[in-house]
Amino acid sequence: MTIINKIEYLSQRDPKWANIIMGNGSLTVGRYGCLTTCISMLTDYFGCKQTPAQIALNKSNYSGDSNISWIGLDFPTFSFRWREGNLFSDANNKVSLDMVKSYMVKNGKGEPDRAVLLEVANRSHWVVALWPVGDDILAIDPWDGKTCKVFEKYHNITGAALFVRWDKNKNKGKKAWQGKGQPETPDYN
């Protein structure tokens, strides 16, 4: 079951943007830009491609010292929807796996209008979730721009961010998090 396909795999360490400083901070894409690079991959998936450099140079995408401003992100074809920062796992990673799968799959089918980023490695790294594989999740790791199995490589998922296909013009200038409010469950229709 393919959830996300037709996406260019990117590495935050690509020399084209590795030395770019993100926002008003002092941190570079190459060293700390995993989330910036993941968001860049989502721009490709949702059809409004921006490189990690373009995202990093747009200061409205950041707050503080190079930290992504979730609600500041502004793209023409998709929007930030929701951020879960307190995922936890039982001994078999079942809690996190079930929750992430619920974001990615509805009625047994992939959701082409959604994309999920996963916070891994005890809140120190982000990856792009592609699709469930047994008791794991295949993802694109922006460190090297290659796929990995999340639990096999990082052993946990500590957070997630959901993005949805969204036309701000059709929604009176509102972003998805403004137009739909805080979701009560992972079913965001």
Tally of distinct domains:
1
Supply the CATH superfamily name: Cysteine proteinases
Rg for CA atoms? 16 Å
User: Percent helix among the residues?
Assistant: 10-25%
- Strand and helix order: HHHEEEHEEEEEEHEH
- Mind telling me the CATH class? Alpha Beta
Topology-level CATH name: Cathepsin B, Chain A
Structural class: alpha+beta
Strand order in the largest sheet: 3-10-6-7-8-9
Largest sheet report: 6 strands, antiparallel
Write the layout of secondary structure elements.
Elements: H1 29-32, H2 34-45, H3 52-57, E1 62-63, E2 67-68, E3 78-84, H4 94-104, E4 105-106, E5 109-110, E6 114-120, E7 125-133, E8 136-141, E9 146-149, H5 150-154, E10 157-165, H6 176-180
Antiparallel strand pairs: 1-2, 3-10, 4-5, 6-7, 6-10, 7-8, 8-9
Please provide a written account of the structure.
By secondary structure, the chain is of the alpha+beta class. It has a single domain (about 30-175), classed as Cysteine proteinases (Cathepsin B, Chain A, Alpha-Beta Complex), CATH 3.90.70.10. The chain contains six helices and ten strands. It has helices at about 30, 35-45, 50-55, 95-105, 150-155, 175-180; strands spanning about 60-65, 65-70, 80-85, 105, 110, 115-120, 125-135, 135-140, 145-150, 155-165. A six-stranded antiparallel sheet has the order 3-10-6-7-8-9. The protein has a two-stranded antiparallel sheet with strand order 1-2. Strand 4 and strand 5 (about 110) form a beta hairpin. Mean pLDDT is about 85; it is low at about 185-189.
